[in-house]
Amino acid sequence: MNSKKLKIIVRIFLVVALINNVSGQTFPVVPIIENGPPEERINLVFLSEGYTQSELSGFEQDVTQFANFILNDEPYKRYANHFNVYAILVPSNESGADHPFDADDEPFPGEAVEVDTYFDGTFDSFGIHRLLTVDNSKVFAVAADNFPMYDELLVYVNTEIRGGSGGSIAVSYNGPEGLEIMNHEIGHSMHRLEDEYNNSSPSERANLTMESNPALIKWKNWLTPETDIGVVQHCCTATQLEWYRPSSTCKMRVSAQRFCDVCREKATTSIHELTDVIQSKSPNSGTVSIDNPTTFSVNELRPTPTTLTSSWTLNGTVIGNNTASISISPNDLIAGNNFLNYTVQDETEFIRLDNYSTVETTSWIVTSGAVQNCGVSVSSSNGSITITGLNSNENAKLFNNNVQAVWSCNPWQGTPCTSNEVISNLTAGATYFVSVQSDVCDEWIPIVVQGGGTNPTCNDGIQNQGETGIDCGGPCAPCNGGGCNVNITSSNGGVSITV
Length: 499
Ligand SMILES: [Zn+2]
Ligand SMILES: [Zn+2]
Prior knowledge:
The protein is an alpha+beta fold and 499 residues long. 14% of the residues lie in helices and 26% in strands. Among the domains are: 188 residues, Collagenase (Catalytic Domain), CATH 3.40.390.10; 87 residues, Immunoglobulin-like (Sandwich), CATH 2.60.40; 72 residues, Immunoglobulin-like, CATH 2.60.40. The protein is built from 5 helices and 25 strands. The strands form 7 sheets. It has a 6-stranded mixed sheet, with helices on both faces. It has a 5-stranded mixed sheet with strand order 10-16-15-12-13, with no helix packed on it. Strands 20-19-22-23 form a 4-stranded antiparallel sheet, with no helix packed on it. It is elongated, with a radius of gyration of 37 Å. The structure holds zinc ion (ZN) (2 copies). One zinc ion binds next to helix 5.
């Protein structure tokens, strides 16, 4: 189970705990599209409203038609394998939905219609004719009892009258425009997008804002010549004119249109938030000991075509790119703990947000009993470094402070190491690194050069060129500066001074 899904299940249990006045009832749950285990996918769960028992096969067809429709629409199309679709078959006693004919904007006259349906679906909600709603608490209760691992709840209402709504649940009629309406309502309920059409009630969302400064507006990164994104004044009342939307063309404005780039971006981030790229890894343990070359791999949930990029590092060094598996051999390891890390991110062009990261990582600590210290010892004197205890099957290198090799011995290159190697004429006081390797050992030893050296000076703070003191005497200026050179000794109760 991935971490993102864990959070959602906690949320579901909270919802279940809040609803204790509806007795549990089980209904058939039909998988319509199943791309993977529910714990690892985004589960769109449909419930039927106003379908009688004999009409439920029509509900399955409606859901199948919608699943194929939405998963061919971006950004869902690219991430289609991230989704499962299920239908909970809930029969109603009668077909259709209530229609009280009491909305302020009722398009035609008629007498109130009331039908006996499971979720109490009705038009004319909140005084708006086409606002088709259901009793959300009943929908949550049925979902909790029958498919608690839902990510998005959708209700198809079996009626010929056009309508829908998109609060915490997406609701649409099942007529010809139902596909587009349901797609629009998911924009509300799953992506928290606002309506972009005229005279909708505005609020601060990813696709609506009171900020009109192009340099500051939340979709500023989309204000580039190849997009149709701009800063479009909302319409039409004085209050609405204070708001701005990204485009004149968007599914949140006209259901049959595509998402504008800004709404598509928000939908893409929703998909990221509900899924993990790294589904599992092998070996599955965090600490792995290897004796032979071993394959490390990740099982990924990828968009199609993929926009993922990835890299492997071993002890901080990149050892592979854009591959889901890599082979590690004991020869690649140093003695003790080795850190193998895998990093993947989605470089999708659907997202231009600042400070938005899709990076996921997983790592292993790799050890090998076959890799040990080489048992050499290193010392320095007179501007030289001495390596003792080298074996003939080992190779050794001496690196300077800039990690450039300045000396090496290597049996496979015709310069076998001897048991006592002395490398001379090194820079006095500098740090060098001795690297020793064989099939079974690996060692990296820093050492500071003592004495001598290629470029000793009379101000290097080291007694390294025959001086009688540090940086004085011998080739350097006399010790005690320019004063008198006086020796004082004492013996037999007297003092002797020589000049
Ligand atoms: Zn809407
Ligand atoms: Zn939009």
